[in-house]
Amino acid sequence: MFVSCVATLRRAAVAVSATAATAAALIVLPMNPVLAGDVVDTHSFANSSEVRTTHVALDLAVDFAKKELSGHVDLTLERLKPDADRVVLDTRALEILGADASADGKTWAKTSFALGALDPVLGRPLTVSLPAGATHVRVRYHSRPEASGLQWLKPAQTAGKKLPFLFSQSQAIHARSWIPLQDSPAVRATYDAHIRTPKGLRAVMSAEMSEGLDATGRWAFTMPQPIPSYLIALAVGDIGFQAMGPRTGVYAEAATLKAAAYEFAETEKTLEVCEKLFGPYRWGRYDLLVLPPSFPYGGMENPRLTFVTPTVITGDRRLVSLIAHELAHSWSGNLVTNATWEDFWLNEGFTEYLTYRLTEAQFGKARGDMERVIGTAALKTDIGLAKSDDDKKLTRSTPAADPDEVFSSIPYERGALFLVYLETKFGRDAFDAFLRGWFDDHAFQSATSRQFLAYLDAKLLKTKPGLVSPAEISAWVSNPDLPADAVYASSDALAKVDAARDAWLAGKTAVTAMGGAEWTVQEWEHFFEGFPKTASAAQLQALDAAFKLTGSGNAIIASHWYKLAVDAGQTAAVLPAMTEYLSRVGRMKLIGPIYRALAATDAGRAQAQAIFAQVGSGYHPIAQQSVERIIKGS
Ligand code: BES
Ligand code: ZN
Fold this sequence. Notes:
The structure is a single chain. 36% of the residues lie in helices and 21% in strands. The protein is α+β, with helices and mostly antiparallel strands and 634 residues long. It has 3 domains: 31-237, tricorn interacting facor f3 domain (Immunoglobulin-like); 254-289 and 300-305 and 313-490, Neutral Protease, domain 2 (Orthogonal Bundle), CATH 1.10.390.10; 493-632, Serine Threonine Protein Phosphatase 5, Tetratricopeptide repeat (Alpha Horseshoe). Helix 11 packs across helix 12 (521-529) and helix 14 (555-567) runs antiparallel to helix 15 (571-584).
């Protein structure tokens, strides 16, 4: 019986009410299932318009030998449809052992469950029957070694080399690979967790750590604020802690702790600047966890505990805008959350805009503008790489099959440019008040693009008429091309880099006269972004000889350099160092461009496949999939 029900529920999933939606009548958006009427999360099987999770209680043991989390999850449910007789959860590659139901969360009785058909992107719906009066379900399960949201690291992949490490990455739809739950950003729940680890290893989560931890490997956590499932996070390893400020500190392996605490020492100040600009920080502490270098992202805004790549620890604090970005998510994303993955720009575009504002406030306008110029260059690159017009928009006409597949800087930088445009039109004071109002009025809620546009219409377009038309707004969100009146930043420092590069390439100056020895990482990034494909092998060799780029200890500079060398047909010269780099670093933004450059020729693609065959098992499952997509034969 469940099988046929599951089939009808497939992709029907989460409906959230779009109360403010109809008010946006003037702003024309394409009629698609996401933006028209009730919001449908096409990336979840959950029946959360009938039964909605309000609390998640985890009880899990960590087994490194089996690469398994095992135990159970208890879900507290609110029945929106009183006679609902089932709850549908999302799962991927989970081994479900049993299900129980309860009316009080204390006395449990077995209940029936069924796993539906496998969808290659979404996983399998798990339907648990709900007896009358049941408000809690318990699912007993264990994860599988291939869980897409977990990476199990061997000791050799850690800084300490002695003990294993585990970390989760739930965004966008990977929480379901380690917890059976309603895996939609439209559903918010509080959570608590009991985690058992092998002795000598510490567990940390995106939550408050309970007092009274003992040395036996038992750890307890509470997240009292309701959060979407993609923000549930866990890491286990030989992890130490160092305080940085009253509310800020850093967790890392012992070998990394000191350098990390130095690099990120300005975090407490950033937090203060944030509060001044965007309103109170509502999450208690703000700590960082430095992951091993296979972490597939730069940073992940897990509440109270941002996960961060070690590739930003460069010793000069020049890449701390990444921390500002993750911290800004405490407002845009964690406090006000995209209701579906089609609304991703509400999370990332806002956050990128806030990051530029933070960088400007903390380090001055020149540095903020420098970062904006680099962001816009990335946007233009990604618009050039986009496979369809839909991929260039802020709100797609057709939902993407897999949110991971369409990930790019477009929602980030186009979103930020849109907000810069609004700021310019309405003035900074009015726009700041508007933004604060958006966060306050939607705190701890999930919102759609349509809701944002309705709010914008009501609070700015209508109250300050004649400045921006609904048609102009529509062009920003749903035209593929960037509006002609976008407001771009400029940077004197980066213009100097352009001039130096061009003079050297034209043979007017020596490579050492460019001033590269004094450049910051941002100046190097800009230097590489504007590098022509026509440069000669001799020029590349001179560049490498002058600045020792092959084997550079700065992972960002190294990534650009290897890509450039491959683009210029100089792969052989960098191959050993590049292969070592690709075997160690798993951050997709750094390795993706190198694999993409290799895959541009047949011989290069074969080389990329050979390198991946050698090093790919060390990548996070999400990074493995991303690289496989890049290098697969066409
Ligand atoms: N939330 C994102 C990372 C993410 C996005 C994970 C989508 C999974 C799916 C995070 O806040 C982010 O944007 N990270 C950037 C940092 C940057 C823009 C400073 C990254 O990892 O590069
Ligand atoms: Zn982000």
